[in-house]
Amino acid sequence: MKRALLSVSDKTGLVDFAKQLVALDFELVSTGGTHKALADAGLDVIGIEDVTNFPEMLDGRVKTLHPRVHGALLARRDLPEHMATLKEHDITPIDMVVVNLYPFKETILKPDVTDADAIENIDIGGPSMLRSAAKNFAAVLPVVDPTDYEAVIAHLKSGEDDQKFRRQLATKVFQHTAAYDALIASYLTDKEFPEQLTISGEKFDDMRYGENPDQNAAVYTSALPEKYSILNADILHGKQLSYNNIRDADAALRIIAEYDETTVVTVKHMNPAGIGQGATIEEAWDQAFAADDISIFGGIVALNREVDLATAEKMHAIFLEIIIAPSFTKEAYEVLAKKKNLRLLTLPFTTDVPNQTEVTSVLGGFVAQDRDLLSETEADLKVVSKAQPTAEQLKAMVFAQKAVKHTKSNAIVVARDGQTLGVGAGQPNRIDSVKISIEKAKAKPGFEDAVLASDAFFPMDDSVAYAAENGIKAVVEPGGSIKDQDSIDKADELGLVLVFSGRRHFKH
């Protein structure tokens, strides 16, 4: 007869699994609540204290941390001296461990959680048993996931000693305990960037491919999920999100979170194609579409108000990949759902995006930083030119600063209050971004009221000169260059309003 030790927090499928183990000639050993659940189901179960000859103690903190448990798990069956040691100390080998851990994650997600509650839900015995079993997977089956119960029974019934299957179970154990410990470490630390940064995630989905068809990809949620996330959206309609869809949609959510006003954001390749505002969501859509009616083709749209029928009909007329909104009216949904591949997503919108360490891979490692959550107000703007801005120009500068912050560097945005007119993104030099953004904006209505925003300082006065010579009357930039005075002098020479925000917004 073989022996299985069961001690689980998640009792999904437990009783049925245990009954099948008994049918396969396993005797059961168990602890606490698991023992009660199995006994209540009419199964014969050996209590852990009958194995250790020692009572559970310290409110259950110590019950399986004992040589009679870990010796039974770690003994190598192929070494006669190990088996002789077990016999000498009257230790019965344990052939399977079925354990899942105290619900630490669920505990710390509670709004009223205390440190005491969190600490009591740090499992010690469970990870120890799992790690012992996983280390000795050649002889012991380590089972941490209830979804594996069926496969484990099938493996046992086959009668084959499938070491590949055993290794897979052991791998899952170490992944699980590593993620569990990473979450605990994250909860307990008070350092923003600790000496050892542990990152864990839970697989959300396998992607059909990554950025390109020859790249494999998957998407993971953070260990502690965020409500305001594309991965938390309800997909009402359309096919599976792709790798690029998710990244573009994430960019759209970041951008639209900057605005309280009724706003529509269109995104292409993680850059804003157009941002528009209006008294109604239809007006906001009209402004966003007019901002760039070419780049929006095949793009992502985020709206921070319910989508009505009139707006839906206009969006239906063009090819879009994804539409994200707080909700759709019944009539709007019916119109948009006529396109079978168009993804329609709902998500509660917010302007309160929490700070979080963000990680980007590099060869051989990764870099980590805070989110850029700074946004300028009119009070932050310092006029450095002789020419003074109008009230409308100041409003447009604040609007444009929120847009340029989410545009790939070198980034330039030409905008009036409530509408982007031209976006220059990702150019190797700033003057090219200036030229692109102005060229896009020049032919659009409202250009005479436009301001130009830059994500970083002008290293020389050529951008100021080009802007003034091509119809821009006001510019906002962070300042901070050793040649700032050259730009100020050029602005004064050409009668341009020049304002320093004091804050850089690089986005690589």
Nearest-integer average pLDDT = 91
| Neighbour order of strands in the largest sheet | 8-13-12-11-9-10
Rg: 30 Å
β-strand number: 21
Helix and strand content put the structural class at alpha/beta
Instruction: Note the gap between the termini.
Output: 61 Å
The main pleated sheet reads as: 6 strands, mixed
Q: Are there runs of 5+ residues with pLDDT below 50, and where?
A: none
Helicity level, as a percent range?
25-40%
Shape annotation: elongated
By DSSP (H or I, 4+ residues per run), the number of helices equals 18
In what range is the share of β-strand residues? 15-25%
Would you kindly provide a written description of the structure presented here, covering whatever features stand out?
With 508 residues, this protein is α/β, with parallel strands linked by helices. The chain contains 18 helices and 21 strands. It has helices at residues 14-23, 32-40, 48-52, 67-74, 80-88, 104-108, 115-120, 125-135, 149-158, 163-188, 243-256, 281-291, 309-316, 330-336, 391-404, 430-441, 462-469, 484-494; strands spanning 2-8, 26-30, 45-47, 96-100, 141-143, 201-206, 218-222, 234-237, 263-268, 271-277, 299-303, 320-325, 343-346, 358-362, 365-369, 382-383, 412-416, 419-424, 451-454, 474-477, 497-500. Strands 8-13-12-11-9-10 form a six-stranded mixed beta sheet. Strand 11 (299-303), helix 13 (309-316) and strand 12 form a beta-alpha-beta unit. The termini are far apart.
